[in-house]
């Protein structure tokens, strides 16, 4: 993993393809707010309601993520979804289709905030597309409680990398370790996301999917808090070149990773 940091603000323009927002869809909105509020110190306020009840999570008064309620009549996975910036979401959605992906929702307007779509790559991994207007995305990065990285877990990286490069014009940087099927996606020479081919190591009930990493000040304390709040530790803490990291799940089963920066 390579952590991406960039200046953020309520009206900061993101290069197309930059992860600019993360959103979680759940069944129990109130209990989810309680879990993440206690874990990350988030507060919440209402957001656009086009797809149903939705709140934005704030840290120190700045927006960092979104949480919405799943429709009761649809069986959809409880999962964190990254949104990738676009200057024209309609054109990007057309490109997704032309390159073998699908568009499940939209494009549609999210009130005055912007325009969005929810898509999937050819392997089935879901991601969002966001064309910001009043709301350009995450307004705070590089602090505990904020998203710092997104990584796609997939069968193999070569074919899916072609899709993302065609849609968002990324450059790619292979892993330095021989035999490790990892790629880093670059925009203007800056790492913005990762692809990790894990072969048959994907959970059979999930398939390819994106995973969001959130920064924490104290990883061991965060893991204890996850358990106290009804979540689970899926992969224990281990040291890596970019800090200590672990993978966890919230009470509804949404998986994410937490990382402690070594600085």
From TrEMBL:
Q: Where is the VOC domain?
A: 18-132, 146-261
Q: Which domain of life is it from?
A: Bacteria
* One family name in Pfam for this protein: Glyoxalase_6
Q: Which organism is it from?
A: Streptomyces nogalater
This protein is called: VOC family protein
Q: Which InterPro entries match?
A: Anthracycline_SecMetBiosynth (IPR052164), Glyas_Bleomycin-R_OHBP_Dase (IPR029068), Glyoxalase_6 (IPR041581), VOC_core (IPR037523)
Q: Which CDD domains match?
A: SgaA_N_like (cd07247)
């Amino acid at each position: 993993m390579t952590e991406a940091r960039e200046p953020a603000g309520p009206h900061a323009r993101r290069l197309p393809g930059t992860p600019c927002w993360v959103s979680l869809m759940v069944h129990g909105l109130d209990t989810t707010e309680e879990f993440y509020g206690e874990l990350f110190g988030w507060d919440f306020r209402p957001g656009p309601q086009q797809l149903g009840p939705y709140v934005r999570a704030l840290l120190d008064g700045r927006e960092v993520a979104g949480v919405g309620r799943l429709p009761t009549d649809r069986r959809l996975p409880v999962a964190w979804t990254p949104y990738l910036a676009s200057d024209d979401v309609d054109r990007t959605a057309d490109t997704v289709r032309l390159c073998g992906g699908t568009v499940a929702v939209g494009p549609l307007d999210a009130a005055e905030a912007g325009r969005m779509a929810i898509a999937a790559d050819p392997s089935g991994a879901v991601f969002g597309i966001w064309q910001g207007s009043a709301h350009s995305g995450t307004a705070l990065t590089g602090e505990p409680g904020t998203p710092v990285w997104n990584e796609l877990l997939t069968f193999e990286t070569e074919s899916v990398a072609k899709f993302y490069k065609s849609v968002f014009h990324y450059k790619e940087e292979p892993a330095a370790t021989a035999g490790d099927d990892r790629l880093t996606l670059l925009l203007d020479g800056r790492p913005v996301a990762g692809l990790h081919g894990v072969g048959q190591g994907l959970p059979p009930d999930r398939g390819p999917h994106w995973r969001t990493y959130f920064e924490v000040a104290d990883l061991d304390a965060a893991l204890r808090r996850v358990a106290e709040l009804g979540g689970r530790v899926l992969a224990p803490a281990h040291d890596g070149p970019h800090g200590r990291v672990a993978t966890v799940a919230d009470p509804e089963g949404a998986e994410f990773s937490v990382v402690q920066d070594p600085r």
